[in-house]
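Thread: pyridoxal-5'-phosphate complex, take 2
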Amino acid sequence: MTLTSCLIDTDALGHNIRALRALVGPGALLAPTVKSNAYGHGLGLASRAFLAAGADWLCVNAVNEAQILRDEGIVAPIYILGYVGLDEIEQAMALGCDAVIYNAETLEKAVSVHALTGLVARFHVKLETGNNRQGLREEEAMALAERIQASEGAELVGVASHFANVEDTTDHRFAEGQLARFAAFCRRLEARGISAPIKHMSNSAATILWPDRCQDMARAGVAAYGMWPSSETLVAAVLAGRRRLELRPALTWRCRIAQVKDVAAGEFIGYGCSFRTTHPTRMAILPVGYYDGYDRGLSNVAHVLIEGQRAPVLGRVCMNITMVDVTDIPGARLEGEAVLLGRSGEEVITAEQMAGWANTINYEVTTRINDRIPRVAVSGQGSGG
Ligand SMILES: *Cc1c(COP(=O)(O)O)cnc(C)c1O
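Output below.
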């Protein structure tokens, strides 16, 4: 077994999909977002678990992710929500993927690919409603939608937008404005006789807070992995009197202890001599560092779990090595398990806690766990099925 691995509880992933399905009902397409190696959970592994639990579509960021899914035999509809390069459009069409569109050049390229190959492009026009990231202003989006509808070899499948701050606050007036602009645009499209059957702008927070306003498709990411988008979203859901949604985290990141040793009082530990022992200390050396995605901001503040007990990180997190205090954990031994993220016995370190220590968000904690670390599917852990 490798020194470091991530155990992925596929029962938990399935539970989260079923919980989201119960929210949105049978009418909306459930399209979990599996970009960034499925938020660190393993692209193919998580995708299969989601589909087995009833997800309808998968959302990826880029063509190469869609290629991996197709190569693994996944035939479910895939929506590419990030930019598709002009030289990648033919690949997206050949894979039968839907893609977001917000450039006329993308359409022109697709039409010429169609003329050469007969392949058809399936597009979702991205409307700018206030996030000012990807997307087109109303008039531009309308013009592009009309051009797609009139183009040989391109199909207008949907219209999409994206919220700016729905998870950042419990005051949702800005998000409401975005929703209203989106709805108004959809009505104008219809009035012009332009058909775009799949309308979607809900991320996890919107899916949780307004499950009846997910239009035709819910693009939930973080919640599908059992994490709340933010504490604000949790508070807003409770304030809204929503029956409490139970999400189950699915990822346990663990490694094997590389050395256990004693140091005297007054010794410095690690680069920069940023920690000094005040008493005789037993340390465990872990073969994990910031290269693996264990953030350097965790230096001197984080804990890991050994034998169900908290072992504080001592000194700086190195590129490939981290030192922890096991003075009070007699069971710590060479090759014993250390849990960096997840549960050990009665103790748990959540992505939210780690995010707090490292001044970031749970999304970044799990997505940055190095892709080279094996993801191992586990199920039947008796986590309450
Ligand atoms: C990442 C992403 C999502 C999913 O967001 P979560 O907050 O993880 O649910 C949805 N839509 C778009 C366009 C995204 O980029």
